[in-house]
Amino acid sequence: MKEKLDGILQSTLANIEAATDLNALNDIKVAILGKKGELTQVLKSMKDVAPEDRPKVGQMVNDVRQEIETSLEAKTTAITRAARAEKMKRETIDVTLPGVKKMDGHRHPNQIALEDLERVFIGMGYEVVEGPEVEYDKYNFELLNIPANHPAKDEQDTFYINKEILLRTQTSPVQARIMEQGKLPIRILSPGRVFRSDEVDATHSPSFHQVEGLVIDKNITMADLKGTLDQFAKEFFGEKTKTKFRPHHFPFTEPSAEVDITCFKCGGKGCRVCKGSGWIEILGCGMVHPHVLEMCGIDPNEYSGFAFGIGLERVTLLKYEIDDMRLLYENDTRFLGQF
Ligand code: DAH
User: To the nearest 5 percent, what fractions of the chain are helix, strand and coil?
Assistant: First the structure.
């Protein structure tokens, strides 16, 4: 009996020593001390022991059990402690390491160009105002001298909500809205989104932005218009920029013009940016048509004014030498991150 108990004790102690985790220890505990464990079996076989030997054998079994339990406990503590130490080591925070940098957002190139542009006109005393993107046909067309049967409507007449309401095709309706309020003089700049049924390509999009300008006061002449836009071109595109006013037609201005600037890239010699001509078209403008003034409640005999409309994407593309408008809308941070 003694050998048997010794055998159990020695092999169990060796197994405990070799165990590397708590599960292994538990397995050992069950295999030896559990209900069907080896040592428990020995206890159960006590009935075969001669009665006078029982106390002695019982004592021996208890000693073995005690020793195994002590050993299990010690090993459990050792394994737990080692695991905790390992965990601490793994989770150590090195406070001297540089932090993880957060990516900050920044302004879109269109927005940068718009703020530059606004700064120029605010410097000349303009106020920035906004109008609705969903607009009445009346403001978008009628009050701008574009009646229902006007051919100019064909090019623009586009996303209608119903017969009277559409997504504005230009920022010019803000002119009519401001004039109608009757507070004079007027000196406003109105940026915003406009909508046309254009197909997407490198220079077109069904939704883009314009910046409208309007000045109404006594004795405003074409000279004021030319001086203003020439000054804008110089401040926005560079000191040496020259402007050229080409006669054009817009229903709501008379006379009307398109404005070209000398190419800021080649200075007018001709290059890829200006397609060899030395000039780049940047906006439409003109003297506000007397009939438009009248329709909006302003006496054309007392007041006159000028207006202009700048394609925001157009000047953004030019200013940053971007050759495809789609890049402005695709939100690819590899592109946008460059500004
Ligand atoms: N609204 C015109 C367009 O979308 C641009 C324009 C031309 C605006 C002349 C003006 C202007 O204010 O005077 O084509």
Answer: 45, 20, 35
Task: Kindly state the DSSP code that residue 284 receives in the 8-state scheme.
Answer: E
Q: Is 225 in the pocket of ligand 1 (CB under 6 A)?
A: no
Residue 171 in contact with residue 309, Cβ under 8 Å? yes
What distance in angstroms lies between residue 309's CA and the mean position of ligand 1's atoms?
4
Alpha-carbon span 296 to 268, nearest angstrom: 41
Considering the entire predicted model, what is its pTM? 0.71
As a whole number of Å, the CA-based R_g of the chain is 44
Given a contact cutoff of 8 angstroms between Cβ atoms, the answer to whether 317 and 323 are in contact is yes
Which residue shows structure tokens 């586009």?
158
Positions of the chain with pLDDT under 50 = none
Helix (H, G, I), strand (E, B) or coil at 174: helix
Q: Could you tell me if the CB of 305 is within 6 A of ligand 1?
A: no
| pLDDT (tens digit per residue) in 135-146 | 999 999 999 999
